[in-house]
Give the backbone structure.
Amino acid sequence: MKVNHQLSYVCRHTSKESLMAQKVAILHTSFVFVSVEPVINDLIAEMMPDAEVLHFVDSDVLATVVREQGISQKSEDRMVHLAQAAEAAGADIIFSACSSLGPTLDAAARAVDIPVIKIDEAMAIRAATEGSRIGVLATVPTTLGPTSDLIAAKALELGREVSIEQRLAAGAFDVLMGGDREKHDALVIEQAVALAGEVDIIVLAQASMNRLADVLSERTGLVVLSSPRMGVEFLAERVSELAK
């Protein structure tokens, strides 16, 4: 039997003593948030210091979605498999760190008996609440559609009419994965400044741009929303509810 070496599982125990500790499983589609940009780990350590964090990584599925220019049934099945593996490992709640694969988490949620939280759900609600002309900025093309669709769905739920303008910082994610943060940042800033003239709020479709949020807000003069802190705050609220 051939083993997929790109599927990995890492466990980090932040606290063994707390009886109220919850197991939080994070689903990743690249190692960017495990080794390159540990912002999610840092936020969880800040907001949920007693949580036991389990990382589940399929480092090829995002590349597959980009290559196929969309989410196939096989890609959806892979994310469902990650969620089921998380549940089998004893996780109490699942947190998806990838916006591009967001639509697959609906199927994953139906396949498991524990809550599933999307990293960009809280951000989408805020964008739909505060913005009328919403700019969605991404560094991976397959993230533009899912993020825009999620914002549109939240706006519909809120009874608000919004317009959404998509913008891609082409190649920036590959540059980041190659270790060149400076070039990545320059590409993102360039596209954000260009987008700012057409919208009244900017949404960063990928958490990998999180550290640029303040810089982009300063350069554009607009509110710039990024998912990690809002997403982890929402996760922390659900974890608190489970602990009770």
